[in-house]
Amino acid sequence: MFGLALDFTGISKAYGDTFDISSYAAASNVAASFSSDTPATCAVAGTTVTTLGAGTCTITAQQAKPLTDPLVPPVQRSFTVQKKTLTVVAGTPPSQPQGTASAPTVTCTAAFVGADTFVTSPTGGVYTINGRTQGDTTYNTTYIPITVGASTTAGNYVTQCTGGTVGGNYTIGGYTKGTFTIG
Fold it and tell me: How far, in Å, CA of 107 to CA of 98, rounded?
C-alpha cells in the first residue's frame, strides 16, 4: 500500500514561525517532498516550513523522485497563518541625580520578525502613580504623565509607551511598563 497524508488539524502558527512539517505528514511506502503553493504566505525548504505573512498557507506533499508508485496522487492541505501578536515594551532609561534631571528618552520596542518595525512609532513617556480615585473603595492605579526636570522629586517613576501602529502581519496585544529613577 502506497500513500501520502497531510493533516493540519489543530495547527496554530503565526507570522514568523518555523516548524518541521514531518509531524503533520505521513507517507506509507513512499518518500515525500513538500512545496508551498502560496509563496507570499509560507516557504518550504526540505521539511522546514517558514511562515512569511498572515493568511492562508497551502502545502503540497508529493511522492519524491524517483517515483515509487506513479499512482500515488499529490496531497494538498491548507492552514491559516495568524498575525503575530506583539507586546510593546517601554525602556528603562539610566537613573539621573536629583536637581539635575532632564527628560529621558523612553524607547518603545517589540519583537518584530526580521527588519520589520512600527509603521507609526509608539510614544514613550514618564509617569507618576496616583492611587485611589475619590470615593472609590478599590485600588485603581492611574498613571499621570509628568515633565521631568531639575525640580522633579527624587523617586521611582513608571515609563510607558502608548499608541503606535504595526503592519498587516501584526497586532499589538499589550504594553509592558519600565521604570525611571531620580535619586
Answer: 22
Place of cell 502581519: 169
**Strands 123-130, 84-90: pairing kind:** unpaired
Residue with cell 473603595: 137
Q: Please check whether residue 158 is in contact with residue 148, taking contact to mean a CB–CB distance below 8 angstroms.
A: no
Phi-psi region of 168 (alpha: psi -120 to 50; beta: other; left: phi over 0): alpha
Q: Tell how strand 3-6 and strand 32-36 pair up.
A: unpaired
Beta strands, E only, 13-83: 13-14, 18-20, 25-28, 32-36, 42-45, 48-51, 55-63, 75-82
pLDDT tens-digit map of 121-155: 999 998 887 643 344 455 556 778 888 888 888 88
Taking the C-alpha atoms of residue 63 and residue 39, their distance in angstroms, rounded to an integer, is: 20
The predicted model scores a pTM of 0.82
Helix extents (H) in the chain = none
Instruction: Name which of 182, 86, 64 is nearest 126 in CA terms.
Output: 182
Q: Sheet containing 42-45: which strands, arranged edge to edge?
A: 18-20, 48-51, 42-45
Please provide the size of the chain in residues: 183
At which residue does the C-alpha cell 509603521 appear?
A: 119
